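Standup, Tuesday
Yesterday: got the pipeline producing structure tokens again.
Today: sanity-check two examples.
Blockers: none.

Example 1:
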Amino acid sequence: MEHSINISLCMIVKNESNTIRRCLSSVKNMVDEIIIVDTGSSDNTKDICREFTDKIYDFKWIDNFSAARNFSFAKATKDYILWLDADDILLPEDIEKFKAMKKSFDTSLDSVTMKYNTGFDEYGNITLSYRRNRLVKASKNFKWIGFVHEYLEVYGKTFDSNINITHGKISYKPNRNIEIYESKIKEGIHFSLRDILYYGHELYDHSRYIEAIQYYSKFLDSNEGWSEDKIRVCNNIADYYLSVNKPEDARKYVFKSFEYDNPRAEGCCRIGFSFIYENKLAQAVFWYEMALKLEKPKNSLGFFNDACWTWLPHLQLCVCYDRLGNHKLACDHNEMAGKFRPNDKRILFNKQYFKNLGI
């Protein structure tokens, strides 16, 4: 049955004075209630939030994001709950999509996913995106799980919407999560498979690659876990081996990622790069061409590097075909890359190079 619904926005915040007004301004006319849970701000975050709501609660920080988020959900009084972080916004076109969805909402739905765009290049192209459960039925009492890198455990009827949440991060706390994990290790707290995975990611992001691979290997060896996470792990390990000039080891892990789903453009580009490193240009061409032939999964919850599905294979094919002596085809691929990155210095350099060749 379709009808208009009431929505509670639930957020946890701490020292978000740089971003919280921007976030709340973008969503204030879409939601019917705003719940703010503050975990210990020392700036004027709460004062800014009072411009939008009087439902502001304090929650003592206990190194557990799920506990804070579950507390915020418990304060909601409306039909559905939307959650955002303080550095998230909805762009005007997504606000309109959201309002339209809200007016004629299928109330049999338990959850609505939205695409989360978290990385952008200087031309506005999305460089990293994935889906998350964003709007959930309050009566289902879905719970957040995990003290860091928490996730909302959702079941039932789900709809993959065309609404985007845009992540506009201004401040970054690079050590916060890894410090929480390492304090939990000292406390002797048991790590779930998900904790093993995300601690591996934190180690990787802090350039502690050997330790990261040990945790990644535990995750892969478990033969459990989400296929998208396994693909991401394989790609991270492959990137490490490429960085230390071990292309065969890199390819091994990319091929392993193909066990979990059909080949992805990200994997094909990594294999292509490994063959360029070895000056095996025909093989490199094969894999970059393969990347361009693949269809990007539409509603997957996995992580995607959009460069690998758009301009990057063209730019690399330009390099390969030029070295192979096919300058016309190299020029064509450079032009196709330029449609996505018109002012990229590499592409502009190539344009001049081909112009000098008379192409």
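Example 2:
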Amino acid sequence: MSTQQVDESTPAAHEQGFLASARRWTHPVLVANLVAQIGIIVTGGAVRLTGSGLGCSTWPQCEPGQFTAKFHPETSYHQYIEFGNRTLTGVLGVIAVAVAILVWSDKSRSTGYRWLGLAPLIGVATQAVLGGIVVRFHLDPALVSLHFIVSAALVALSLLLLHRHAEGDAPPVAVVGPLNRALGRTLAVLAVPVVVLGVVVTGAGPHGGDDEVAYRLALDPALMTRFHAASVWLFVAVLVAYLVVALRTGAPAAVRRAAWLLLAITLAQGAIGYVQYFTGLPELLVGLHMLGAALLVAGTTRLVLSMRTRAAV
């Protein structure tokens, strides 16, 4: 029997063979991770908008002595909504573990790409701990806001990971001109105050996350809304400029599609934002606005990534 045959019969070789076979699922698992990262923002919004933030009074248990929501005559629906959100966090954790294993075990890829595969798992663990702190501090608005911002960052990282999976590992090469690159980077920077100010507006508004504990950020909601709207209009102006330059310079189709998609998301977000403001912030529209915020982060990330390409090493 040859040395090669002996090596192939070892447990380590079988393990590597199993992982190599399993990696055909990497792309769908990365898609599932991105969808779940966006989904957790929506379910987290549902917890807040239904006043279910303290539906489970403690953490990691739902109630003292019980880990799951249980029915009894005094039970309200809040407990089930909060526990449902926690359950989705568990599902997201399982997906994040799968992502970490599939990406980290791919020794054919660059170290940077493989380290990126650990980001969802680290993020989910961070969110779980932060969620427990939020409950124990009775929905402190600053902590609730940080909870959303971490989720938004995880959406961006998850889309980056999905995009990197489809690329090679050679150094990036720009596919658009210097002006488009400058405008694209500006959009990435402007997206930060757009999202953060949106979170501040929510923290200062009427949806505190619980019907009895209703802490708010000590800020003027109307003033914060104006600042948020101004940041969005600036974002739109730069995005339109980006699209005009892309069209005039014959940018690749992928770049133009990413810009048009981001413009559609932004305009839809603006429309929802104005309607919800002038109709008293109905819960459904606020929830859609939170979904739109996640899509805005993903769309901005996609646009920036479309400006370069990587070949296989």
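Quick observation on example 2: The longest strand covers residues 173-174. The first helix runs from residue 3 to 8.
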